Amino acid sequence: MSEKHLGPGSDLPPLKKDTLRLYGMRFCPCAQRIVLALNLKGIEHEVVNINTKNKPSWFIEKFPTGLVPVLEINDQIVWESVICCVYLDEVYPGYKLVAETPYQRAQDKLLLDLFLTKIARSVHAHYRSYDGLDEEQKALLLESIDKLENELKKRKSPYFRGNKPGLLDIVLWPSFERIEGMDVLDGDCLPADRFPLLTSWMDAMMDVPAVKNSLLSADQHRRFYKNLHSAQPLFDELLG
Question: Which PROSITE patterns match (predicted)?
């Protein structure tokens, strides 16, 4: 990920035939899900980073939602992070992200719905405003995370996918990477005594090469999010 974040006055980079392109943002948790999927599956691609605080006019014209992430190849455009991950898994062979059986895929979808509506919403609301959670909100967040801990206990595996990370793991990971760095729990990490299996899962995820390649430290997240609403957000601070 070395492309500078493009803003007003920039030109749309020329599209190459049969080249998969991700429009993203280096610190965006939803875009990170796509990066993880691409890297796990070993899919060749290029990245165009967008300044999401001050977007290029061509980006808004091309993609009416104005949101990242977006995948584009030839005349095909796909957006929404989970849909993009499933699309990549269906189109590109090799490493499979989704579970093998219809029943397990259904169970994963139920867990994804819980995560996206309860956990990710709390974390990402904090990401957008950087307002701390009050004690009631924190308690509700931890109660929702309890359900993920219990699910890992039932699955008896290091990852939600089994012995290797899959769709559920890569959708969950960016939010858990940010819990500490964004001070979602007032500077506290996920309590290891309450969540021993999730703590082990996080350790296992950090050993996955695809995760290592996109991983940012707690300090890097904290610095970026605290400056997000300033006159000069640090979009390009970590780029070459």
Answer: GST_CTER (PS50405), GST_NTER (PS50404)
Residue 189 to residues 50, 131, 186, 198, Cα–Cα distance (Å): 30, 17, 9, 12
| CATH code where residue 51 lies | 3.40.30.10
Catalytic residue among 28, 30, 84, 85: 28
Q: How many CA atoms within 13 Å lie on the side-chain side of 12?
A: 12
Using DSSP's 3-state secondary structure scheme, residue 11 falls into coil
Active site residue 28: yes
Statement to judge: residues 88 and 149 lie in one domain: no
Residue 6 DSSP one-character state: B
Q: Name the helix (H) or strand (E) containing 73.
A: strand 70-73
Dist CA 136 CA 144 (whole Å): 12
Against a cut of 0.90, is the pTM above it?
yes
Place of tokens 């300044």: 51
Say whether pLDDT at 124 is over 90: no
